[in-house]
Design goal:
The chain has a single domain, classed as Up-down Bundle (Methane Monooxygenase Hydroxylase, Chain G, domain 1). Helix content is 81%, strand content 0%. The protein has 6 helices and no strands. Helix 2 runs antiparallel to helix 3 and helix 4 runs parallel beside helix 6. The protein is globular, with a radius of gyration of 18 Å.
């Protein structure tokens, strides 16, 4: 059973957006691993966020022109909105790091961004299965995996903040790092919200 009529391109837009978000997550990880927070990297991150916005708003326009949708219009809008919000959080994280002119290698950032990327990739996988409710169990299993990854991100976040308060004596540096980690955590949490929306869509179709 298909969620959308064949002539519509909603799935293509969702898949395009999922690909763009994954590209953003990969780019942020590359920045962290290579300690490259240059203006050029910041500008590319802005471009990726803009490209995601274009996909999102194009899909909104298509949605407003469609009289009947096989799933709740509100669910589709919420899904698009939160997927785009992941890219917004990725951009804000990268720009925050660039603004603070981070020059020190930080293993915790890399660990947390890797969890973010894994969560994004699992989300992309379930988005690409959403076109057919024969994939419903695979989608629901993927949602559970995203919840597990989100919990892992929470654990890393708590331990990192705890260690920051123990080891970092400079109050300004402490606030900088705390904000950076909270922005990454926001992106991971938004991935979990996306999975909750998808889980609700699938259960409504059951």
């Amino acid at each position: 059973m298909r969620l959308f009529p064949k002539e519509e391109n909603f799935f293509k837009y969702l898949e395009d957006l999922a690909n763009k978000v994954e590209e953003g997550g990969r780019f942020l990880l590359q920045m962290a691993e290579h300690l490259d927070y240059s203006d050029a990297k910041a500008n590319r991150l802005k471009e990726l966020e803009h490209e995601a916005d274009v996909i999102t708003h194009t899909t909104y326009a298509k949605l407003h022109k469609t009289f009947l949708t096989p799933i709740d219009r509100e669910d589709l809008y919420a899904l698009l909105n939160k997927m785009d919000s992941i890219m917004d959080a990725i951009e804000s994280t990268g720009l925050c790091i660039c603004m603070y002119k981070v020059t020190k290698y930080n293993a915790e950032i890399i660990e947390q961004v890797k969890i973010l990327l894994q969560t994004i990739q699992k989300g992309k996988e379930i988005i690409f299965n959403l076109h057919d409710m024969k994939n419903s169990q695979r989608i629901l299993d993927g949602c559970v995996e995203i919840h597990t990854l989100e919990n892992a991100g929470d654990t890393v976040m708590r331990n990192t903040i705890k260690n920051l308060f123990i080891k970092e004596k400079d109050a300004i540096e402490l606030l900088k790092w705390k904000e950076i980690f909270e922005r990454i955590e926001e992106a991971i949490d938004t991935c979990d919200t996306v999975s909750n929306i998808i889980e609700g869509i699938v259960l409504k179709q059951a």
